[in-house]
Fold this sequence. Notes:
Elements: H1 2-31, H2 34-54, H3 61-78, E1 86-88, E2 91-96, E3 103-104, H4 106-124, H5 132-152, H6 156-173, H7 177-197, H8 199-209, H9 220-232, H10 257-289, H11 294-318, H12 336-366
Antiparallel strand pairs: 1-2, 2-3
Amino acid sequence: MKTATSTLIFCVAALLALGMVMLYSSIMAERGGHYLLFQCVWTCLGLATCLIAANTDYRILKRFAWPLFIFSVLLLILVLIPHVGSRINGARRWFKEPHTNIRFEPSELAKISLIILLAWYGEHYQRQMGSFRKGIVYPGIFIGLVLGLVFVEPDVGSMMLMASVSGALLLLAGVKWRFIVPPTLLAGSGLAYFLWKDPMRSKRIFAWLDVEKHKLDIGLQAKQAMLAFGSGGWTGLGLGNSRAKLGFLPEHHTDFIFPIIGEELGLVATLGVTLAFVLILLCGLHISSRARDPFGMLLGSGITCLIGLQAAINIGVVTNALPNKGLPLPFISYGGSDLVIMLTCVGILLSVGRHAVASDAEAVVTTPDALPEPQAS
């Protein structure tokens, strides 16, 4: 367990350090140190919440599962109200402080609150999760509520991410495949119909299928990202020497920061980042499997799935393996809400691991060293 937690901490710290360096490199020529200063503040805040979570018994979250979920839902409702939530690029996803331009995205809080509630529900009804009513209908109500509000913003990428994590947690909690497949197919069909009828998102899919045809409009980001990766080669052009960041690649400091890493530091660095996320995934799964109770197992598994799947989607998007979804790369992309929540999730995962170790130690202490051998008659 010590190896898993140490590896987890090392990988997260390495990604944070790389994120700071690449953020500095990607924005200093264009926007100065304004964004870097904010990212430092968010990082410090995230590390503080990570330490607090790591040194707090994760089981206390059971008491706050419903209050935190209700609070998250209220925030998701408030952000949709005009003059309360900020509308940017056609989406109403953020609360924005007008003087400093600091933004908070309530869907990030909704991700972890939904995981906590599902972990509590899975433990509370673990013997009844095999039934359709307790395994699908009841959890489907609060899952559908959150996904519906996120969909209305609209934020289809986050909605699909949360739906995937929720489905994985239900399966781990004991829901049978034959119960979960039909609702999944129904929801997938509805999403496909929406994407087909929505002009902007259908264009993204067509651009994904034929980047060359749309390289000057909707497929610009994907094309420029591939050019950046190709320019970097094995070892990169050198730190600070990216050309894509000079106005060619939009959102190069947020969702598309990974191509800048590839251009400046090369394939070696991008493979290193991918390896770090794989190690985080493996460590999280190991910690979750050693949790002392079902709540810890489900909570750790949900957090691990959230981090790993979000990283996989981001890397898939910027390498054009997936259509554009608009999800940040955990621990690296610029953004306060996602960074603080992700670091808090790491702290909770460390708490699960710390108490699993404590449980093992207690078992060793209470177990007799050796049973007395029977005396020969």
